[in-house]
Amino acid sequence: MKYVIPLFLLSVPPTALANSDESVEKVTVVGTAAPNDDAWTKNTEVFEQSFSSEYIGRQELDEKSAGDIKDALRSVSNVRVTDQGAFSKQVSIRGLSGERVLYVVDGVKISNQGMTHSGGGEGNLNDINTVESIEVIKGSPAVIFDPGASGGIVNINTLQDHTEDHLRGQLKFGYDEGYDKTSQHAGVSTAYNGFGLRLSGSKNVAKGYKVADKDKLDKTLEDSNLIQEREGDNQILDLGYKDKAAALNVFYDGGQLGRVDASYANYQGEDINFTHGSSASVLRTDELKRDSISVTYRLPQLYRFENLIVSYNRSEINSVTNTVENTLTSDTFGLRAELNWLGGDHIFGGELIKDTADNKVSASQDYYAAFWSSNWYFGDLTVTPGIRFNHWKINKTFRKGENKELRCQLEGLLGCLPEQTDSTPTYSLGAVYSLTPNQNLTVNYAKTHRQPSVYERVAFDHFRGCFDNCEAESADNYELAWKYLSDNLFVSAAIFQNDFSSFINTKEKRAIKNQAALELCIQLGKCDPLTGDFNNQERDFFETHIEFYNAKNVTNKGAELLAHHKLSRQFEILGNLSYNEMSSEDPFVGHQSRPWELMTEATYRFDNPDFRPWIKLNARWVTDKPEVKQVDGFDAFDLYNLYFGFSYKAAKLNAGVRNLTNKVYHEPYGALDGLGRSYFANLTLSY
């Protein structure tokens, strides 16, 4: 690691940062610009924000053959994506995951209830082929998003239906050797005289998970298959999955009268096998479905108000695990508008979210909010205050005919849950100070507060909820950043800290299920409880489960450096360096730290207008500082990935090879080794 010199630092000329007379107003999009200038133009917006964010456009999604939304986040600085199988992926932003990561699709929050056990909302229940762009907003910088997203926001924008008269279609076929995965996608869109329609469908079948050390993975799968007690099950756990998705959007654009969009999306997955945390066992979801209906009205102007948006979404997520069915229904209503008033730009609005879980028990969480955020301008200083008024109400309900008095005498999952209410406000304050036309200094503070989700309270499958022992999670969040922007260079350096007075976490607990066998093992000298050596028979002696609880006084801190340098219209280099460290007296918290990691990426686009070929080389170096403390130890590693492609008329081919050196490696605190050397390819036909 000590001999590695980041490519993106070598590419920066010594005079680049010294040139402070060059105005950022020169950063424009012109007709002859390189194909990726959408992403470059986004740097201008990031430069002017009081917080940190990164942008992923449709071009990058295609060129890296992103298999799903979480897979697309791998190149974002201080975002770690850990495979738990072909489908499930654990996402953390600045070390924070779960309900601290919010997913938003076209302005509508995705149910943030953790039913896929992969971090945050059910992001992968949305078809990646319908996505136009993804913006990753780090931390919780603005009250307009969420009261408790201390990790960040994954803001997903789907393909926008163009209002000009047209008829377009697309077919896409792909294969990924890493997951033995085949994929197909078809879509068509049309518009005439202000009316439009878009219809799409996708299908994926993944049969496995390819690693360099196949024997180790086979042993994990074999052990997990032996201990599964499943009713009428003849399926073998293999870390694969099957799914299909369909989406329909219709709209009418009446110009100044506004635009109405109505959409329906359906996702159906089955045989989803995955690991959780650093556990060596494999879990399974037999069926996972999501139906979503949305209606949105957008009005450009109403009196002095601009960009008025009114939206409603109803989403139902259904999972089946070993014949046990769980259903989460979410209704979301949102209203927001913009206003220029008294020299400031303001965004205000409100939302209502009702989540209802129906399973072995029934529970609901109602959430109401009103928010206001603004930008005030004082010469070289921009100040961005905001406040959000929140109200939660949590109930555990009873089915018709149940004896409530008798039920409330029980404990845990089957007992009562007293009604919980909370009206704690959250707020933020940021500032942008212009040092020179090319350099900004930004600072941001945000107070976050969230009630445990329905799932965290009354977890109903592989996990156990914390019921009425839960406390709300509350944190003070800080960020200080320096940003530089010129015509061809963007640099951002940030430090951050999150101080949690209460932190909702998970831990594994054991209970002896075969005491006689354990005592015999100890008598024979094969087991020693003092050293934790149980002769590889833990599953014979203990029954384990994972439960939610509150950890106290948790601090998360870290830093990140990001650079994007366009050396020419054909050649550009990206790079980022980041880490986070989480500390607490609680021993179960430290596994959310992530060591220093360096990522560099160089892209060259050949000057061939007929085929437009390109090539991209990506490299990662992951250290062991701060120290990674996990079972079986941890070794620093380096990875190299190659991407390439070309397009000719209506056809586009994107392909690549990951893990070029076939390195055996293990992501920090992951349950699985990383994918071995494997290729992938996608062919897209447009008409």
TrEMBL record:
GO biological process, one term: siderophore transmembrane transport
Limits of the TonB-dependent receptor plug domain: 48-153
Domain of life of the source: Bacteria
InterPro entries per record: Beta-barrel_TonB, Beta-barrel_TonB_sf, Plug_dom, Plug_dom_sf, TonB-dep_rcpt-like
Gene Ontology cellular component annotations, sorted alphabetically: cell outer membrane
Signal peptide interval: 1-18
Protein name per its UniProtKB record: Putative TonB-dependent receptor Porin
Native organism: Vibrio nigripulchritudo
Species classification: Bacteria, Pseudomonadati, Pseudomonadota, Gammaproteobacteria, Vibrionales
